[in-house]
Amino acid sequence: MRFLRLSFAVCATALAVAGCPKPSAPTDDAGVTAAGESETAAADAGPGPASFTLQYALPDAGLEVIPVVGEEEGRPLIDSTSTLELRSTLVLRNYRIRLFDEAERAMASDDSAEESPNGLLYRISLPTPLKTGHKYTLVIDAQTGTSMTDSQGREVPDMRIPFQVSGEKEKPPPPAKKKQRRR
After folding, report:
1. Is 17 a member of any domain?
2. Which of these, 132, 119, 138, 122, lies nearest to 69 by C-alpha position?
3. Which of 37, 54, 70, 153 could form a disulfide with 66 if both were Cys (CB 3.0 to 4.6 A apart)?
4. Domains in the chain: how many in total?
């Protein structure tokens, strides 16, 4: 019996001493690296995050750049076109690129993507030119899951690139009148 009480006392003492570790105090040099180390780490990380350029094709003038701005900054005006090109400085993984009209409907298009060491070239060819006076938004987001990544493995945030086609807004054609049959 005495042996049982002694071993219980030893176990209780051991648990009291080793139970929960004391919180460690932060050290003064935590997270601090020498200047040479941080420069080397930055050089090893490779190029910066992916950046995008959106262009549109004009029949006679070649390609014109659409400024990449947020929706809160307004919509840049472009000429009517049926070809858009999106370029990124890095190749993207798990991405989806869609063009929406002002009613937030995806537009039908024939798309092609080319990957190279210089990045991604994504061409959108529309069956008909964009309508004058109408607003459009190019959306770049993740195909599956919650995020897309670049070729360096870094997450790339979703983007919305708004723009508007210059000119007077085209009115939709009036609905066709139905002929009534008389009996």
Report:
1. no
2. 138
3. 54
4. 1
Residues 137-154 have pLDDT tens digits of 999 999 998 889 998 999
- Give 172's pLDDT tier (boundaries 50, 70, 90): confident
Instruction: Please check whether residue 146 lies inside any domain of the structure.
Output: yes
Determine the 3-state secondary structure of 136 from DSSP.
strand
Cβ atoms of 52 and 86 within 8 Å: the answer is: yes
β-pair partners for 149: 93, 155
pLDDT tens per residue across span 98-125: 999 999 999 999 999 999 988 999 999 9
Q: pLDDT tens for residues 89-104?
A: 999 999 999 999 999 9
pTM of the model: 0.66
H/E element, 78:
strand 77-78
Domain containing 64 — which CATH number? Answer: 2.60.40.1220
Q: Is residue 1 part of a domain?
A: no
Domain assignment of residue 149, yes or no: yes
- For the four alpha carbons of 148, 149, 155 and 159, in that order, the dihedral sign comes to negative
Count of helix runs (H) and strand runs (E) in the chain: 2, 12
Query: Tokens 């009534």 belong to which residue?
Result: 180
Query: 86: exposed, middle or buried (C-beta count within 10 Å: 0-12, 13-18, 19+)?
Result: buried
> What is the domain range of residue 111?
48-165
Instruction: Give the whole-angstrom CA distance, residue 75 versus residue 135.
Output: 8
